[in-house]
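Chain A, query sequence.
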Amino acid sequence: MSVAFVLGNGKSRLALDLNELNEVGPIYACNAIYRTFTPDCLVATDPAIARAIQESGYAKTNRFHTRRPIEGTGAKGLPKNYRGFSSGPNAVAQACMDGYHAMYLIGFDLGTTDGQFNNVFADTEFYKKITDPPTFSGNWIKQIKQLAEEYSNRRFVRVEGPESAFVPGFRDVANLQTMPMDRFQERLNSRKGLL
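Chain A, predicted structure.
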């Protein structure tokens, strides 16, 4: 079995060293992470940030997927059946289509525990202010569940930090589990139990 890590931009992912994570498996990520880290696959569906990524030249030398690739930038399109999905779920879909059997969803906080906007890029271009209310996460939850059900022979693990919102609907999907961040870090450090 093979493992991949899919990063959302919720604050819980700040507990991890992404370079260490990349030593264990490929990283799929979304949106503004490209400002500070180069994942193996980047996805952006929101038009403004997708355009900025392409205009930066990022897609000429790195794998990048979006809804409407600008010709000549190197960007790739998204599969038609996932084009309506948000960036994070589309990053999960890319890992599924690339054939990984175990996918760890990190930074998919899907809400907040303090009532504020939960994103590591809050207060920067294309993002809301940190004091804004959290973004509605119902569509992300629905799309992740749909992917887990579609790829029922794969293992999906949502890694939860103290900032992660509780998502009761994930309990209904047999191959979608949750794992506390401290247990994930132990397994990552020992390189055991991730598959």
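The chain has a mean pLDDT of 95. The beta strands are 3-7, 27-30, 41-43, 64-66, 76-77, 102-106, 155-160, 176-180.
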